[in-house]
Amino acid sequence: MATPHNQAEKGQIAKTVLMPGDPLRAKYIAENFLTEVQQFNEVRNMYGYTGMYQSREVSVMGSGMGMPSMGIYSYELYTKYDVERIIRIGSAGALSDDIALMDIVAAIGTCTDSNYASQYGLPGTFAPTADFGLLKITDRIAQEKNLSLKVGNIVSSDIFYNEDNSVNDRWKKMNVLAVDMEAAALYMNAARCGKKALCLLTISDHLYRHESLTAMQRQNSFQEMMTLALDTAAACEA
């Protein structure tokens, strides 16, 4: 059943979906890592594909930028297409001095400055967290591959250009590792829908060392994170 944002029919999307922010990264993964690929969405150029990886069915679809966009696409995948697991594979800006460009961060939890949780009318502050089973599988695979996986708290922000220049300093004091713009909405949707989610991030820039990758590097050079997420997806379907 198509939605205003996704032209797929039920059955065209796998139980596990990898979600980069950039739809061109979804296209890159489909073309370079999957076989028997079928495109299921191109509405608003938010490309989605289903194919085979290690004899397991896996889908990959862009989420767009920011929590409103992630909120729409992940909610529809969970509730309209019977998706069980979403693994966000995105980029992030590092806050921690112990993290370098191209390091992979797994978000065990995510702080946020967003008002996304207000819709639930909760009597306190909700703590968006990853699914422990997905995180445990990913950590095991990372150790088998001798990858250095940094696991900790991140912050998902609604604001890219912030008027308050002190916000990063304050998050850093709380040992927050990095900044993204989507994970909190994904984790909240997963919690509300009774589904599973994990956010993996490759560090594309360091907010204190003024180092950054190019747009083309962000699109095409996150292979370690991509294969780690694909291996996790395949393990979940085993």
TrEMBL record:
Q: What is the lineage of its organism?
A: Bacteria, Bacillati, Bacillota, Clostridia, Lachnospirales
Q: Name one Pfam family in it.
A: PNP_UDP_1
- Which amino acid positions bind phosphate, per UniProt? 21, 25, 44, 88-91
* Function summary: Catalyzes the reversible phosphorolytic breakdown of the N-glycosidic bond in the beta-(deoxy)ribonucleoside molecules, with the formation of the corresponding free purine bases and pentose-1-phosphate.
Q: What is its EC number?
A: 2.4.2.1
Q: Which GO terms describe its molecular function?
A: purine-nucleoside phosphorylase activity
Family per UniProt? Belongs to the PNP/UDP phosphorylase family.
The protein, known as: Purine nucleoside phosphorylase DeoD-type
Q: What class of enzyme is it?
A: transferase
Sites where the protein binds a purine D-ribonucleoside: 5, 180-182, 204-205
